């Protein structure tokens, strides 16, 4: 049986209890262990849209001998709390808890795998990890990273304006500048069914750009493009140059496929799965 066809043993469980109860999926490595991966999920509705791809990626890696832990962070998925309870620093604490659990079961350097805003969360966590832990990290996996926290927050706030324009609530039809002012004033906003608190929004807004979030290990940056031969976005080149100047390698990979994090229906990108396995097992052609 080839690794891609190997049966993967997946264990669902809750880590912690009460308010610290986090739902997890552990995909045990098939055969000899070749690595340990902690998945860092994306934000809000993107988490739901990408569950299929995340599961496929985790199972593919596990089939090749890489143990993968998926964790629903505080206030998301099947974990304890509401989205209004979520805080950036508490999400990093969840990742630390998940990393400790994974390290106790898989004897391998830890790979952080982040998707979209989760890529910035993974980078932020990696910087903390380098300051507080002597446990080694392996090269990171960054799927379609957002260009900046502030830009991403603006895009998320626009969902409220767009939804209001389709309805009859004229009071909700505020631009992003007004919505930011409301958050600054301490108001929690309902955005596309999610209660966005000032604490979480302002933490995302204040995130450094990936250029300045230079991890202690190299990273693989993956971009999904709509047609063959397209060049990656300017953010990838900018980040690669900034990291190189500080002595950290960023390998940029492009694949062709659908933007599965943004489609209303469930979609997948097989080429991204192939590229991720190759990069993780260090058999990819990188640039």
Folded structure, characterized:
The strands form two sheets. The chain has an eight-stranded mixed beta sheet, sandwiched between helices. Strands 7-8 form a two-stranded antiparallel sheet. The chain contains nine helices and ten strands. Helix content is 38%, strand content 19%. It has helices at residues 45-49, 51-63, 88-105, 117-132, 149-166, 176-184, 198-205, 234-245, 270-280, and strands at 10-15, 22-27, 35-40, 66-71, 110-115, 140-143, 189-191, 194-196, 219-225, 250-256. The chain has 287 residues and is an alpha/beta fold. The radius of gyration is 19 Å and the shape is globular. Helix 2 (51-63) crosses helix 9 and helix 3 packs across helix 4.
Offer a quick outline of the entry.
With 287 residues, the chain is α/β, with parallel strands linked by helices. It is built from 9 helices and 10 strands. The chain starts with 9 loop residues before the first strand and ends in a 7-residue tail after the last helix.
Any chance you could write out the topology, listing elements then pairs?
Layout: E1 10-15, E2 22-27, E3 35-40, H1 45-49, H2 51-63, E4 66-71, H3 88-105, E5 110-115, H4 117-132, E6 140-143, H5 149-166, H6 176-184, E7 189-191, E8 194-196, H7 198-205, E9 219-225, H8 234-245, E10 250-256, H9 270-280
Parallel strand pairs: 3-4, 3-5, 5-6, 6-9, 9-10
Antiparallel strand pairs: 1-2, 2-4, 7-8
Helix pairs in contact: 2-9, 3-4
Protein name: Hydrolase 2, exosortase A system-associated
Organism: Massilia orientalis
Keywords: Hydrolase
């Amino acid at each position: 049986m080839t690794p891609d066809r190997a049966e993967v043993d997946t264990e669902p469980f809750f880590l912690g209890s009460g308010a610290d109860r986090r739902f997890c999926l552990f995909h045990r490595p098939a055969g000899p262990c070749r690595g340990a991966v902690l998945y860092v999920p994306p934000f809000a509705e993107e988490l739901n849209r990408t569950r299929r791809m995340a599961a496929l990626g985790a199972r593919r890696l596990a089939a090749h001998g890489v143990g993968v832990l998926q964790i629903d962070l505080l206030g998301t998925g099947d974990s304890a709390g509401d989205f209004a309870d979520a805080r950036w620093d508490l999400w990093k604490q969840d990742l630390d808890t998940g990393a400790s659990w994974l390290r106790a079961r898989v004897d391998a350097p830890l790979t952080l795998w982040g998707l979209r805003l989760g890529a910035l969360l993974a980078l932020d966590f990696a910087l903390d990890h380098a300051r507080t832990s002597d446990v080694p990290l392996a090269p990171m996996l960054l799927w379609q990273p957002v260009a900046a926290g502030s830009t991403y927050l603006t895009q998320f706030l626009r969902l409220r304006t767009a939804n209001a324009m389709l309805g009859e609530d004229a009071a909700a039809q505020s631009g992003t500048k007004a919505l930011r002012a409301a958050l600054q004033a301490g108001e929690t906003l309902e955005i596309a069914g999610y209660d966005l608190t000032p604490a979480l929004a302002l933490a995302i807004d204040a995130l450094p750009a990936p250029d300045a979030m230079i991890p202690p290990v190299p990273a693989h940056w993956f971009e999904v493009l709509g047609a063959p031969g397209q060049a990656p976005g300017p953010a990838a080149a900018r980040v690669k140059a900034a990291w190189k100047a500080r002595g950290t390698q960023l390998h940029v990979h492009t694949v062709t496929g659908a933007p599965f994090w943004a489609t209303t229906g469930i979609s997948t990108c097989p080429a991204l799965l192939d590229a991720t396995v190759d990069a993780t097992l260090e058999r990819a052609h990188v640039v």
